Amino acid sequence: MADDSLFEFLHMEIVSHVYKEHESRGDNDKERGTCVSLLELMGFRVGQGLIERFTKDTPSFKDELDVMKFVCKDFWTNIFRKQIDNLRTNHQGTYVLQDNRFTLLTPLSSGKQYLEEAPKYLAFSCGLLRGALSNLGLESVVTAEVSLMPACKFQVVVQKI
Amino acid sequence: MADDSLFEFLHMEIVSHVYKEHESRGDNDKERGTCVSLLELMGFRVGQGLIERFTKDTPSFKDELDVMKFVCKDFWTNIFRKQIDNLRTNHQGTYVLQDNRFTLLTPLSSGKQYLEEAPKYLAFSCGLLRGALSNLGLESVVTAEVSLMPACKFQVVVQKI
Description:
Two copies of one chain form a homodimer. Chain A has 161 residues and is an alpha+beta fold. Chain A has four helices and four strands, in the order H-H-H-E-E-H-E-E.
């Protein structure tokens, strides 16, 4: 519980810092994309570090789906204290992970008022997923989508090499 | 355990981000002080937020020392999974909080090699303390000192109004 709020507060601070700093530089709207990239990259590195610890005692995975299930269950629970509520896949490398009550969105209103603010609170977590998967051998592109807060969907497209 | 590393990794990212961004701006050495201030201020806000949650069900404190004891024990444990090891005071508003194995310093070498790097990993935590105390009615100045990592001392000087 305590740690949860620590992470939530810290995450809020980072998001607000990254955006404020861009404003103070007078960057234009186009360059605001770099805020998202920055947060995503931070998440990526944190995800890489975390998954290394979480999988220390885990036997190897039998396939891609097995990796995704681990990420939805163990990885997500370790960070957000709940699992992903729903995992769907087209069995061709695309996965949709749905969290019906995403921790980092709950401090925002659950109405539509802050809907346009949502993406900046999702970038870090997209990075977390991409970092974790990358360390487990899956290079991917991760995007997020919100329709009704605090629910959200992460789409993972595994890159075939 | 999981959450601990989440906080540690995230903290590392913030520190490295704040310093990198200053370098990229070409700021000179004098202005590096602002990195410390920035991290301290983030810690301050997080400390304020956290203490509010932690003290929700706590009866009020009987005096300044009582507040300090709470911070050393409950507040510190909630964040760092261990208490402050030693609390000393001159009974005139100055307190020295010693942590013999400070979590955010342990990833650095425990030798002298990274000693000069230590301050940037302490600024956030100085802010945490100052924020928590401020919300409990004590305005203070908090500084940190390291002699042999990963041990460190936080000095709190309560400002009498």
